[in-house]
Amino acid sequence: MSLTIYHNPRCSKSRKTLELIQDAGVSPAIVEYLNAPPAAERVLELATLLGLSVRELLRRNEAEFKGAAALPDLDDDAALAQWIAANPKVLERPIVVDDANGIAVIGRPPENVAKLLP
Questions:
Q1: Hey, which residues are catalytic here?
Q2: Helix axis angle, 77-86 to 40-50, nearest 10°
Q3: Would you say the C-alpha torsion 13, 46, 82, 55 has a positive or negative sign?
Q4: Which of 88, 81, 72, 89 is nearest to 54 (CA)?
Q5: Full residue range of the structural domain in which residue 51 is found
């Protein structure tokens, strides 16, 4: 099984989600997305895998979102994905992806990851 977690080690939900994955015997690829932000194309893929619009991947309470001087149209997925790629702190977390099966979940609550585990 091959999973990828878009992880923020400072986030308790992200840490708990990673723990649940590892406790299931899976060693996921860990992307610390604040240090290695996903490209805009990947943000679009994540939204598709999750069955969400890109705007639904936003953490609207983050200061970077609230204080943004130049937000793109929230209904323009391509423009918003580029903005998220440049401002990764606003990306919902954690996102766990099973690319082999074309599915993903947001680990809020962390137990959502059970849908992807053996």
A1: 11
A2: 120
A3: negative
A4: 81
A5: 39-90
Q: Total structural domains in the chain?
A: 2
Contact present, 82 and 93 (Cβ < 8 Å): no
Is the pTM higher than 0.70? The answer reads yes
Q: Residue 98's domain is classified under what CATH number? A: 3.40.30.10
Asked if the model's pLDDT at residue 67 lies above 90, the reply is no
Summarised one tens digit per residue, pLDDT across range 3-53 is: 999 999 999 999 999 999 999 999 999 999 999 999 999 999 999 999 999
**In whole numbers, what is the pLDDT of the chain averaged over residues?**
95
Cβ 3 vs Cβ 28: under 8 Å:
yes
116 and 103 both lie in a single domain: yes
